[in-house]
Design brief:
327 residues, alpha/beta, Peroxisomal Thiolase, Chain A, domain 1, 2 domains, four-stranded mixed beta sheet, 11 helices, 13 strands, 24% strand, binds oxa(dethia)-CoA
Length: 327
Amino acid sequence: MNAVITGVAGYVPEKILTNKDLEKIVDTNDEWIKSRTGIEQRHILGDGLGTSYMGAKAVEELLKKTNTKPEDVDLIICGTVTPDHVFPSTANIIGDMVGAKNAWSFDVNAACSGFLYALTTGSQFIETGKYKKVIVIGGDKMSSIIDYTDRTTCIIFGDGAGAVMLEPTEEEYGIQDSILYSDGAGKKHLYQKSGGSVSPATVETVANREHAVYQEGQPVFKAAVTGMADVSEEIMKKNNLEADDIAWLVPHQANLRIIDATARRMGLSTEKVMINIQKYGNTTAGTIPLCLADWESKLKKGDNVVIATFGGGFTWGAMYLKWGYNS
Ligand code: UT7
């Protein structure tokens, strides 16, 4: 039994923050941001709304597209590092928002790799035959943990979410393989210093902006280039895939230079690489499902697709799947 993606939907909020807008907030410029990251704009969710809002929008569209009644959903998994609350889980809240009364739910915290970790986890419940309909969401309201006085991070991140439906198939489509890694030693280069149990919120932690993303750009960049390229090559070799066999690379959208390095290592030309970083920036767990949603009309049944990611933790990995439908 394989787990196959049978539908995909994405949601980004209407409000757009352009590079020009950021020039008015921090000492940066459009040219620097575009040439160093590939980003031109990002979408920002309004105050008072959380990741669940974007996740629920994506899931509502997904249910419509796949003709699924909410009560038929068995399980909802949400990859996110910006949950609405520390508890309950955002997946739990989304389930209530969309009326998925019979589903159980949980969140996966693997930063930018959250969607791939969640997709791998969800696929296991299908492959064992236990469940028939699993929704996997990846989404983040990164603007809620960004320090808009820090030019090294505020230019990168944006808000957005996407969701896919996983169902069983006895055909040879769907998820074929995944390779996942994590290395907690990477924590010091990319994390949120306060707000967890080791350093709960105090007046000082707020004043010191410790509830925002702390990132040392260069070590993360180096680890991301190596991690994403290595694991992509590894999954190709393991599954006897040559560059010509691959129809699409779906890379996490952190930096255009990291995406290019991964594609180069895999021997893929740019036309085979899904790139929408210019529109959304880095939406953390949202990037991969948002790519799938944007490219859904171009994906063809039987296409060999490789997903690759790298994120805070460190966490990284790749998945090989055969696309299961024509839209
Ligand atoms: O999502 C998963 C994890 N995250 C990532 O994968 C992100 C990985 N890292 C990166 O993408 C890049 O390291 C950044 C985009 C964060 C930074 O780009 P960089 O090419 O590594 O820049 P840098 O940190 O080496 O800085 C180069 C220069 C510095 O100035 P000096 O010291 O050369 O005078 C920075 O102060 O650029 C300066 N700089 C900026 N200038 C204009 C840093 N940020 C900015 C900015 N605007 N926003």
